Amino acid sequence: MDQIFEESVEFHDTQGIQELFGPQGINLSIIHAGTGARIENRGGLVTLAGPDKSKLKLAKACLVQLYRLILSGYKIVPQDVEAALRILEGDSQADLKKVFKKEVFIVSNKKTIVPKSATQRQYLNAIKTRDLVFGVGPAGTGKTYLAVAVAVSCLTQKMVKRIILTRPAVEAGEKLGFLPGDMMEKVNPYLRPLYDALHDMLDFRRVQEMLETGIIEVAPLAFMRGRTLNDSFIILDEAQNTTPEQMKMFLTRMGLGSKAVVTGDVTQVDLPGTSISGLIQSVKVLQGVEGIEFVHFNQKDVIRHSLVGRIVHAYDQYDQARHKGKAEGGRLKTED
């Protein structure tokens, strides 16, 4: 039978304890799911128990630091608890107060953002300091959302004159051809996530005004050909679905005073047949080029519902097992 370890910590502020635990104890449930620790509270004395001593210490550290954060005036939400676990698991000496309060990134009057992982922090710093940044990793890690946030911040501070958001429409042939409307109406469903991010940062009316005046442009990648984009913040989303020719075309659109961010997931290529992904190729070709930074995310950086991270991990394991099976099958045929 596994040995059970225990840790305890006492909290004294009643309101602080309520905020720490969350509605119906949701924050405790998140910590339990992330560490396996059983958590009991009796009059502010919290006891944690479980078979993994390191996970138990992680749970305790998370509770203690979040409690201090609450007492300092910060209002935590369940996503903050998930982020706290990820941060402390990666760096047990991390100071959550510094991460959550001193690293607040003001996007606009409507939105402020706090990096929820070390990788997000690296990514934000890279975008601020480099003219070209690649954010590569799975869905839900905040690659596109954070890029749009920095773009909006740069626009409101008049560091750039316009924002250009683009995506490749990989199904711009037969499937889109059956949809009603002109070309823009056909590809708008593919651009919807970019609009969603914008509306989360700015008031709806302001977004519409900027779209109408061209201060913000959301368009399929094909519309970028032949242009030179000066004083712009340019974001290429879903870049894994570009061809090498499209990627080169996009990267050479940068003009004076412009920044560009390229985001994508190299495990989710939807290009037909044996087509090479422009994103995968660019990671190899541009590695080490001065002025360019690559930031790689993984499933630990997923900041959507906690289940998303587990789904991504499950699919990664499945793909690895499938590829291993194919490789072993190939060796058996060769040996035969």
Low-confidence stretches: 171-179
The averaged pLDDT comes out at 85
CATH superfamily of the largest domain: P-loop containing nucleotide triphosphate hydrolases
* Share of helix, binned: 40-55%
What does this structure look like?
- The protein is an alpha/beta fold.
- It has two domains: 5-102, K Homology domain, type 1 (Ribosomal Protein S8, Chain: A, domain 1), CATH 3.30.1370; 105-315, P-loop containing nucleotide triphosphate hydrolases (Rossmann fold, 3-Layer(aba) Sandwich).
- Helix content is 48%, strand content 16%.
- It has helices at 14-21, 26-35, 53-71, 78-90, 96-102, 118-129, 143-156, 174-177, 183-201, 204-213, 244-251, 278-285, 306-335, and strands at residues 5-10, 38-42, 45-50, 105-106, 112-113, 132-136, 162-167, 216-220, 232-236, 259-264, 292-296.
- A six-stranded parallel beta sheet has the order 8-7-9-10-6-11. A three-stranded antiparallel beta sheet has the order 1-3-2, covered by helices on one side.
- Helix 1 packs across helix 3, helix 7 (143-156) crosses helix 9 (183-201) and helix 11 packs across helix 12 (278-285).
- Residues 171-179 have low confidence and may be disordered.
In short:
With 336 residues, the protein is α/β, with parallel strands linked by helices. Helices cover 48% and strands 16% of the residues.
